[in-house]
TrEMBL record:
It comes from Dactylosporangium maewongense. This is DoxX family protein. It is found in: Membrane. It is a multi-pass membrane protein. InterPro entries: DoxX. Pfam families: DoxX.
């Protein structure tokens, strides 16, 4: 079965919906309670950039809203490649600020590293969605074409 809207198969659509769920859920959760991540953002910018971002809670809410919107677009098949690319980009600040495993030790470091690597794996899935059509084109261009002719043969009508 193929989706008439995007031209991709049912399993690919199902994977898009599954991938989008974390962004819709986590984005909504963070947007409704941004204080924890805003506090981490303040600590991160103070430590690594030497300043605090004014109204960091609004920036956290904006990023969370982008995740909800991107997740919904991906789930609904609305510009899925663009939605996946935007989600991949919006996940990186959250990953670095939210899971600084290099600052922790012991069990906390392991937990933060697992979350960081999980987000990197999700990023890999998003990159696959964002480049889905490009992958097909690249594969077709790299292999022998069914229209290629052997040397010395003529084209048939």
């Amino acid at each position: 079965m193929r989706s008439t809207r995007s031209g991709i198969g049912g399993l690919a659509r199902l994977s898009d919906v599954a991938l989008s769920a974390i962004f819709i859920h986590a984005g909504y959760r963070v947007a409704s309670r941004p204080a924890g991540l805003a506090k981490k953002l303040d600590a991160f910018t103070r430590r690594y950039l030497g300043f605090e971002i004014p109204n960091s809670a609004a920036l956290v809410r904006l990023n969370a809203a982008a995740m909800v919107a991107g997740g919904a677009a991906l789930a609904l098949g609305v510009w899925p490649r663009s939605a996946a690319a935007a989600l991949a980009l919006s996940l990186q600040p959250t990953n670095v600020v939210g899971h600084p495993f290099w600052e922790s030790e012991g069990a906390e470091r392991t937990s933060e590293l697992n979350a960081f690597l999980s987000n990197m794996a999700i990023t890999g899935g998003l990159i696959m969605v964002a480049t889905r059509d490009l992958q097909r084109c690249g594969r077709a261009a790299s292999g022998p074409s069914r229209w290629a002719r052997s040397p010395g043969t003529e084209w048939e009508a």
